[in-house]
Specification:
mainly alpha; three-stranded antiparallel beta sheet; Ribosomal Protein S8, Chain: A, domain 1; 12 helices; 3 domains; 374 residues
Length: 374
């Protein structure tokens, strides 16, 4: 026996292991041990939720007691806590109760928060406060999740079969696991300046495709819209435009039609290349040297600037004075015609009428003579 002990290999990992008191044979490790778990949630925003929580706490207590969970509302320290009791039979219900008081703290109504105790419903609290640093931009993007009159939020709830509440710096979500994943993606993308309508459109297409059993084993990528993730450069836009024009020309060529031009404008004439650089432009000092201003003294420069300013002011004053004087110029009035002018106009008018009448009578007479001859 001693020889076997000497030859047996020694496990280095258990070299310093000591026997524990619970390693005895009379201890039953399989039997269920009683365990108490307690979760406490401290509310920083208890002030505006205090009145509501006090009113509905009896309903919260009643809902949790049916699952064997005790709850406490401490308004002095501003905290809510849940703990297991001897009547607790579901080990996971304490985590559900913890989620329930989290939702109550985030502004979810009691009737809605109680649904989290169901095994098919899970919750997620998405933090969006640190995604955008600019406050105005953050408010705009958060409002984009809600949409006009809450229409975008309602569409997200219907498509994901979830409950969504946007409150302060967080978004509270309740629903199935897949729906919560979709809502998280939509919310975080919206805070990254991707509009929720793109994801909503994709979810609507997926819902319609799921109704067709033939497409269950096929890829849906050909049906889903492809949105570009970045803005294209000018060269990339031009390349894509040329590709579309080439495809269009191939179709027109197959149909026997003339190809469409690219619509480029005529390029200007190419300049002749010269290895020499262009002439250097004169500096301000050079211009002052040419005009002689450089050699003037400081008081002479000041007088010159003052003279220029005064001349300019006089010109503007003269223009404004002329503009104001236009309002006092009397308009030209036509004098009333004298008696002689009136008579002359009348004679001229009568003479024109007489000539016209004689011409008409001559034409009528000529016409009657032609009729008689025939």
């Amino acid at each position: 026996m001693a020889a076997n002990a000497e030859t047996a290999p020694i496990d280095n990992s258990k070299r310093h292991r000591k026997d524990k008191p619970w390693d005895a044979d009379d201890v039953d490790h399989v039997s269920m041990q009683t365990c108490r778990i307690k979760y406490r949630l401290v509310l920083n925003s208890i002030i505006y939720r205090e009145k509501y929580l006090r009113e509905v706490w009896s309903a919260v207590t009643q809902a949790l007691e049916s699952h064997g969970i005790a709850c406490t509302l401490d308004l002095i320290h501003g905290s809510m806590s849940v703990r297991t009791t001897r009547k607790t039979y579901d080990p996971y219900i304490i985590l559900k109760a913890r989620d329930m008081i989290k939702l109550l703290a985030r502004g979810v109504a009691t009737g809605q928060a109680v649904k989290i105790l169901d095994d098919a419903v899970v919750c997620d609290i998405i933090k969006i406060g640190n995604t955008v640093h600019n406050k105005e931009r953050f408010v705009k993007r958060r409002q984009r999740i809600i949409g006009p009159d809450g229409s975008t939020l309602k569409a997200i709830e219907l498509l994901t079969q979830s409950y969504v509440l946007v409150q302060g710096n967080t978004v509270s979500v309740m629903g199935p696991y897949k729906g919560i994943k979709e809502v998280r993606r939509i919310v975080l993308d919206c805070m990254k300046n991707i509009h929720p309508i793109y994801r909503i459109k994709e979810l609507m297409i997926r819902r319609e495709l799921a109704k067709d059993p033939q497409l269950a084993t096929e890829s849906w990528d050909r049906f889903l819209p492809k949105f570009r993730k970045k803005h294209l450069k000018t060269s990339e836009k031009t390349a894509r435009k040329n590709e579309r024009i080439e495809e269009k020309n191939e179709g027109r060529k197959a149909a026997g039609l003339e190809p469409v031009g690219e619509g480029k404008k005529d390029k200007p004439a190419k300049k002749v290349y010269t290895p020499f650089p262009p002439a250097q432009l004169p500096r301000k000092v050079d211009l002052q040297l040419e005009s002689g201003e450089y050699f003037l003294k400081s008081h002479e420069k000041a007088e010159r600037e003052a003279r220029k300013r005064k001349d300019k002011q006089e010109e503007i004053t003269a223009e404004r004075r002329a503009k104001r004087a236009e309002a006092f110029i009397a308009p030209t009035e036509e004098a009333a015609p004298t008696i002689e002018e009136k008579r002359k106009r009348k004679r001229d008018r009568d003479g024109m009428d007489g000539e016209g009448g004689s011409r008409k009578s001559k034409a009528k007479k000529k016409k009657t003579e032609e009729v008689e001859e025939n």
